[in-house]
Amino acid sequence: MNATLASLLLSILLASCVVDASCTRKLDVKRKCLKKCNSNSDCRGRKKKCFCDGDCGMSCVRHNRKCKEVLSILHGAVDVKPYNRFNAKARYSCDEGYTLNGPDVRVCRGDGKWGLTAPSCEIEGKCPPPPHISHAKPDSLPGRKYFNVGDRIYYSCEIGYDPEGFSIIACLDNGLWTKHTIKCNPKACPDPGHIHNGVRQVGDFVYMSKVNFTCNEGYQLHGSQSLKCNSSGKWEGVKPHCLPIKCPLLKNPSNGEVVYWNRNRKYIKKNLISLKYGDKATFNCMRGFEIKGDRERICSANERWSGESARCAIVDCGYPGHVPHGMITSPIKTTFGVKLTFRCANRSTHKGHMAITCQENGRWDHSPPLCLKQCTVPKVRHAKVYTSHNDNVGIVQYFNHDNYVVISCKKGYALENRHKKKSFCNNGNKGIYSSSL
Description:
Main location: membrane
Protein name: DgyrCDS2012
Helix content: under 10%
Strand content: 35-45%
Subcellular location: Membrane
Structural class: mainly beta
Organism: Dimorphilus gyrociliatus
Distance between the termini: 168 Å
CATH architecture of the largest domain: Ribbon
CATH topology of the largest domain: Complement Module, domain 1
Largest sheet: 4 strands, antiparallel
Pfam families: Sushi
């Protein structure tokens, strides 16, 4: 039949379409149906007519609706008539020695899709390789493609898994395997228990699972940090326990002592062997000594004391400095309690303290003295020289710092500059004076 004749017959069919009262729409249709109709007048458009569309019943379908090309099947053939049009039928058949598994006819529907699922051709009296079961192994040879009717396959579970259900399947004459019920469950390990002063990770206690443990603050884990459930249903590893973190007692520094306190700043007695995590050690020195290093140390999570070790060093006030025109007469030491004595050079006087002492605060109790040079008494012809206390200088050759001498000319003589009657001594330097005329 050529294409022109087929088109003519289809036109005649469409023109004479009569509604089929037995083609009703089912309630449990598992696809989207087109518009429901009773006659062609219910359909809009010239191309839509009222046709029986399988489970959808009478529906408005385009008369030129087509489905995609049907794919061929392995070890079989498919014949489609009329070619891929609405209501066309695809008929499947298998080669000799093979049996069709699935529907032998599929119909092109009004939605442009083929109904049902494409079948397959399976060898007669043969079964395919046995189905895969999680964590189970069949006793068949690997790579075998087909099995004979009556062949039995035994499944065994992998190491670490226990079987549940029937473990044998058989090849049936329809080329299918009997339904299996075997299930491989992981072996269970007993509850490992809780850990004192710590926590465990919540999880399943089955093969290949792990349970992790951690300790509370101030405690250290001893044993395995995690336990693993092995194929025998036993835990691998050493069950841990949490012990308090401890630090050893510190030695008292020379000329000092260590005082211990807990987190609440309460005093801890010294008759202990060790201290706990978070305890503090405070270093105190004797009078005249000072801390070098960390005054306070804390017992850390690594069982060591924080900071650096402390020692008590004697307080040192340092060299007080050079005294011009003077010297230190005592041994030169600058540590706590030492007393330094000073002496001024000849023809000089002192101002301040001639002895200073190093205090526990690291400072001298006084500044070093000042040694101030005396001045030479001026010699003035035809004049008398008096000190600031109206004393005749006479045979005295020097006068002290911050003092002065008065120049008084004899009768018949006068100073060149009447305003320069005094001569002041400033650390060995005299003021300007005038001679008598």
